[in-house]
C-alpha cells in the first residue's frame, strides 16, 4: 500500500556479454539518504542510468511511489520528480551559469511560443520566476563565482555546485548524486557534506554514489554495496562497515585506485556473493 | 535586431528578487552593463536604419534587386541559425524549405489565380509538414547522419521540382504575381517582414524554448535529465526553421515573379550555412551581418568577372582562419540588470 519513494527490484543490465548489473534490489524512502558504494566498475553509475531512463535495464523494474517507470525516457522520469547529477560534470558550458540553473525550471515555468514572440505579461512573469528560482538555488548551493558568465569559466568545485543547483531547481523528490565530492579538496568536501544535509532537510531523498567512506558513513541512513554488478550488502552504515564481504571487497582499504584493483583481484578469486 | 542571440538578458533580470546571503553575485559592473545595452540596441536600430535609407543612396532597379535579395537572404540565415546556431543541428539542405515555400506560393497563385498573400496559409501548412516529415525520422539520428540526410532531402526536393509537371519542370513557373506595386515598395515590405522575422527569431532564442534549444546543443543528456524532451525540442527548431525558410521563399517568388529549380541547389544551402558560420553561430546580430556580406560581396566583386567567386572564397577562408568564432559571435555573458 504505502510504496516507497523509489524501489528497484531485480535490476539487471548487460551490454552484450558484459554484465554491468546482476540483480540489484533496494528501496529509498522519502527524505532518506541512501549511498551506493563499490569499487570502480561495480555498476553504480549504470544503476543510476537505469533509474533515470538513460539505460533500459535488461531485466527488473524501477518504481517511483509504486508506479513503474522502467523504460521511460529520461525527460519523463525527470518530469516525475527525479533529478540527477553526472559523474563527469555535464554543464551547458557555453551558457551562463544562470541559464544552466534555469534548465531546472524548464518544466515549471508556463510560457508558449506566442508569449515569447509577443513578450506578453506571462512571458515576463515566467522569465522572472525562472531567474528568481535560479538565483535562489545558486544561493542555496553556495555559489560564490560569477553567475552571468559562462559556466565553463568557473573553477571545478564551483561547477559541481552549479550542477547541484540545476538539479535542485527541478524541485525533485529524489536526487541522485554521482560522486559529487570527487575531485574536491578537504574544505570543499566538508561544504558538500553540509549541502547534502541541507538538501535532505528540504524533504528531498538522496541516492549518493561516493568513494569517500568518511562522507558516506557520516551522511547515509543506509548503504548499498555493489561489487562486479552484484549487491553484496544493504543496511545501516555501521552494519555494512562490519560486513566481512564488504570489508574484503572494498572497505578497510584506502579508496585508492591501486588498492581497489587489488581488492577487486582478491574478490575475483572465488566468491559467489549473493545479494 | 534587438539583442544578441546567445545569453541575452531576460526582460527583467532580478538581482533584487532573491536574497544573496554570503558572497552575493559578481556580475558586470553597472557602467559596462549600460554601455552594453546601448551597444545592443544601437546595433539593431543601426542595421534597420541602413536598410531603410539605402534606397535613398541608390534606387536603380539593379541596386534595389540586389538589396531585396540580400534582405531575403538575411531571413534565410536567421531561420537556419535557429536550427544550426541555437540547436546545433547541422542542416545541409536548408534551401529545400525555401524551395517548398517558393513553389507552393508560385503554383497556387499561378494555377488558381490567387493573390500571393492568399497562399500564405497553404505555405505555412506545407512547410510545417515538410519540416515534420523530414525531421521525424532524421532527428533521431546522430548529428553527422543528420547532415547527410538533410543534404539528400535538399537534392530530392530540387530533383522533384525539376521532374514534376505542376512545378513547371526544369524551366519552372513564370508570371507569379507580386506582393506590391513596384520594386521600391516591395523592398520596404521585404525589409519589414525580414526585420520582424529576425526579431522573432531573437525573441524565440531568449525564451524557454530557445534555452532548451541551446541545452540540446550543449549537452543532450543533461538536457533530458532536466526534463527537456530533446526530440520534441529539436523538432520545434526544425519546424520553426522550416517556416522561416518557407516564408522567405514566398518573398523570393514575389521578388523574381518566377521560380525554377536552379535557385535551390546545394550551393545555395552552403551559402546560407556560410552566412551563419561567418557571422557567428547562435548570434542573431552576427548572422544578419554574415548574411549581408555573403549576399552582397559577390556583387561588389563583380569587376573581377569570372574570378569573383574565387576572391569571395579566399576572403571567407581568411576570415575563418583569423576569426573562427565568426565576425560577431554570441556572448555567453549575460547582462545583469
Ligand atoms: N555504455 C556502456 N557500454 C558498455 N559497457 C558499459 C557501458 N556503461 C558501463 N559499462 C560497463 O559496465 C560496468 C559498470 O560501469 P559503471 O560505470 O556503472 O561503474 P561504476 O560503479 O560507476 O564505476 P566508477 O566508480 O568507476 O564510476 C563497467 O564494466 C563498464 O565498462
Ligand atoms: Mg561511476
UniProtKB/TrEMBL annotation, chain A:
Keywords: ATP-binding, Nucleotide-binding, Transport. One of its GO terms (molecular function) is ATP binding. Residues 6-253 form the ABC transporter domain. PROSITE patterns: ABC_TRANSPORTER_2. It comes from the Bacteria. Pfam families: ABC_tran (PF00005), BCA_ABC_TP_C (PF12399). InterPro entries: AAA+_ATPase, ABC_AA/LPS_Transport, ABC_transporter-like_ATP-bd, BCA_ABC_TP_C, P-loop_NTPase. This is ABC transporter ATP-binding protein. It comes from Microtetraspora malaysiensis.
